[in-house]
Design goal:
By secondary structure, this protein is α/β, with parallel strands linked by helices. It is built from four helices and four strands; from the N terminus they run βαβααββα. This is Probable aromatic acid decarboxylase. Keywords: Flavoprotein, FMN, Lyase, Prenyltransferase, Transferase.
């Protein structure tokens, strides 16, 4: 089974992350791991009609962005990759500079 981490940041366009999860739901042999920033939760409610539960139900595994002990935070967690969609400039900057306080969003 291939593991793919889907991160949703607080940037505008939360529907893109939702749509990716919907598409991956129909892909055989892919296990999705969802992590959403706090800002993503707010953006989701402002921009879409989806509830947090609706989106979480699309993923196989859901991780709290603040849980630094989550399996996905370990370098030994084997994964096909991670997609952050949408990705805010703040999140991208944190990735580029290896600086973050959560699993998906820097300084949250």
């Amino acid at each position: 089974m291939k593991r793919l981490i889907v991160g949703i940041s607080g940037a505008s366009g939360a529907i893109y992350g939702v749509r990716l999860l919907q598409v991956l739901r129909d892909v055989a042999d892919v296990e999705t791991h969802l992590v959403m920033s706090q800002a993503a939760r707010q953006t989701l409610s402002l921009e879409t009609d989806y509830s947090l539960r609706d989106v979480q139900a699309l993923a196989d595994v859901v991780h709290d962005a603040r849980d630094i002990a989550a399996s996905i935070s370990s370098g030994s967690f084997k994964t096909t990759g991670m997609v952050i969609l949408p990705c805010s400039i703040k999140t991208l900057s944190g990735i580029v500079n290896s600086y973050t306080d959560t699993l998906v969003d820097p300084r949250r």
